Amino acid sequence: MHADPLNQWMLSGTRHAIDWVDDGMVRLLFRRQQLASIAGRIKRHAGIPQSDPDRESGVQRRARHLALRRGLSTDSVARLMALLIEEAHRQQSAMKPDSSHFAGPSMPSSPERDRRFPLWRLLPPPQRWRPLVSRLPTPLQQALALRLLAPAIASSQAMQTLQPIRGRRLGIRVDDLGLEWVFELHERGLQLSRAPAEATVSGSFTDLLRLASRLEDADTLFFQRKLTLTGDTELGLTLRNLLDRLPWESLPLGQRILLQRGARLACRARQAYRDAQGAA
């Protein structure tokens, strides 16, 4: 017996929404663990006990109060919060005794980085490349952009993930290079458009490369204001949520390696350049 097409469509849409919520929960868990790690380092540095029963009770009270307001089971929410608190304890207990920095893991200090990679600080930032890039003919710029981006969504899985934005005009603006393109997604893949973008993602070359290489997720970059969205807010939010769901494993291995190595190099060069400017 075949299900009604309308019911199938509604079920598919509901499952897609559930997947989106699940993805958001995992991202929130990651954020919570990052913050718990920072709190643990602060407490260790200040000589404060890792366990704080009053704080944990307050977390549970606030969660139960919110659960009642939302019509949720307080028992279920209490179990969830207990699990999160237990995970924070585990993470903080596993920290090294000499870990006293408030920030999370970072790159080596500037002197060490300069000794290991002395040429990074000599690599000019992307804005210095702008005059050279501007000399490239616009058709060539567009062709190169399409050549770079099209393989990222060429797989059937990626095309299926991006179906909600098919036919919409999306812009990418590389602020420090002065580049901007508008793309449309069709059944045959990604195509350039001459019409204005409905929503535009803007950011520096390095931060857009961090996003493309999965060194950082979209939510983090937008939250830190490294990337911005302009235009149709609803379309922009849909795009932001879909970016993290693109199947990274569908990209050819060589392209993944190239993207990640390029992003790491760009990040290190940017930091080394900033360190050199600060020391000048």
Portion in helices: 55-70%
Per the principal axes of the C-alpha atoms, what is the gross shape? globular
> Strand count, sense and closure of the main sheet?
5 strands, mixed
The largest beta-sheet arranges its strands as 3-2-1-4-5
Number of helices: 11
The H/E string reads HHHHHHHEEEEHHEHH
Protein structure class:
alpha+beta
Write a structural description.
The chain has a five-stranded mixed sheet with strand order 3-2-1-4-5. The N and C termini lie far apart (75 Å). With 280 residues, the protein is an alpha+beta fold. It is built from eleven helices and five strands; from the N terminus they run αααααααββββααβαα. 58% of the residues lie in helices and 10% in strands. The chain has helices spanning 5-46, 53-70, 74-93, 110-116, 130-134, 138-149, 156-161, 205-212, 218-223, 233-243, 253-279, and strands at 169-174, 179-186, 189-192, 199-203, 227-231.
